[in-house]
Amino acid sequence: xxxxxxxxxxxxxxxxxxxxxxxxxxxxxxxxCCRSLHVDSQPHxxxxxxxxxxxxxxxxxxxxxxxxxxxxxxxxxxDREAVVFLQDGIRKTFAQFQQDVDKTAAGLLALGLKRGxxxxxxxxxxxxxxxxxFASSKAGIIQVPLNPAYQVKEVEFTLKQV
Length: 162
Description:
By secondary structure, this protein is α+β, with helices and mostly antiparallel strands. The protein has 7 helices and 4 strands; from the N terminus they run H-H-H-H-E-E-H-E-H-E-H. The strands form 2 sheets. The chain has a two-stranded antiparallel ribbon. A two-stranded parallel sheet has the order 3-4. Helix 5 (94-110) packs across helix 6 (127-139). The radius of gyration is 22 Å and the shape is globular.
């Protein structure tokens, strides 16, 4: 078995890397090798020409909004299932989901919310949560997710940030 394979097999967890036998044997060469397995090229200093820094992957972010991406997906696969919530008996195709998103986005705007406004959403993982994520994005409204498990101080902190 190669030294690299021995190193990889002796790793127990990412958190324990520096205390592992692999680190003693291979040190930083293991990190470089493992890192090279997950990227197409070595890191470089990016020249900023967009609103995000594109790292070493050959797959870039799409130059589309969430709404545009949904519209494009609906054109390609209108009848494929987009969302399934078995416990709630909800199954939506991309076309059905898009209709719900458009109606909800229009409803948010009809309530008086406008592009750039913030909308706090407090709730568990449900169809409505995903629906509001897409609808608020499509309407240009910034969704502020609030976890129902937050304690009072965490909710206060989150609300003060927006």
